[in-house]
Design brief:
Layout: E1 25-26, E2 31-34, H1 40-47, H2 50-53, H3 63-70, E3 78-83, E4 86-96, E5 112-119, H4 128-141, E6 153-159, H5 163-171, E7 175-186, E8 190-200, H6 201-206
Helix pairs in contact: 1-3
């Protein structure tokens, strides 16, 4: 998908809803698809692991709140990732507006996405996290006419202590744009620094979707 010469949607044209795209999307080893209510047990199986639950923004997962989450509007912004029929991770793709002055506000609507992801650590050290996030970035930057979201920019944020997350962003060629000092409250670690990374469609497409 990253070979298309077009880098973004026509200004002022809203991106399609994530779940309205054609699914599933496949990468070399993975299948990306919308979340489903019956994913609750599998999702809980890895999101409740201590090394995962430590970093997620929501409450520590239980079966009840996982089922509630999967039936909510928030789940429409999440893709689930399978390998050989097994759920191994999930990626949030929250499409939103860029900041703009009033006269050009329409051109900034639905032009960027905030990304977040979780990989089951039992499937770690195989490059799957890099592969699944790369697949989602490709989807974000692929033009609408070619089946993607046609966005111009993606952003991802993490606690500075979450080294595996920000190292993944750097492997994908994302640029650290901000280092916020002691601005993010962790439930156990207290006030931590936050890193903000970003990437433009033109950067990603100019190198063929490669880091």
């Amino acid at each position: 998908m990253s070979d298309s010469p077009a880098s973004a949607q026509t200004p002022g044209t809203a991106a399609p809803a994530l779940h309205d795209l054609v699914w599933p999307v496949r990468t070399e080893r993975l299948l990306l698809r919308p979340s489903r209510p019956d994913d609750a047990a599998a999702l809980l199986g890895y999101r409740s692991l201590p090394g995962v639950a430590e970093w997620i923004g929501g409450p520590v997962p239980t079966l009840a709140n996982t089922e509630e989450y999967l039936s909510s509007e928030a789940a429409r912004h999440v893709l689930h990732v399978e390998r050989d029929g097994v759920l191994v991770g999930d990626v949030m793709v929250m499409v939103g507006d860029a900041w703009a002055q009033t006269e050009v506000r329409e051109r900034a609507r639905a032009t960027q996405a905030t990304l977040g992801w979780v990989l089951d650590p039992r499937h770690g050290r195989q490059g799957l996290a890099t592969e699944m996030v790369r697949g989602v970035i490709d989807l974000c930057f692929t033009p609408v006419a070619d089946g993607g979201l046609g966005l111009r920019r993606v952003v991802a944020e993490c606690f500075s202590d979450n080294e595996s997350s920000w190292r993944l962003m750097e492997r994908l060629g994302m640029r650290r744009e901000a280092h916020h000092v002691a601005d993010s409250l962790h439930r156990e670690r207290g006030w931590l620094d936050e890193f903000v990374y970003a990437l433009l469609a033109e950067e990603w497409l100019s190198r063929g979707g490669r880091p």
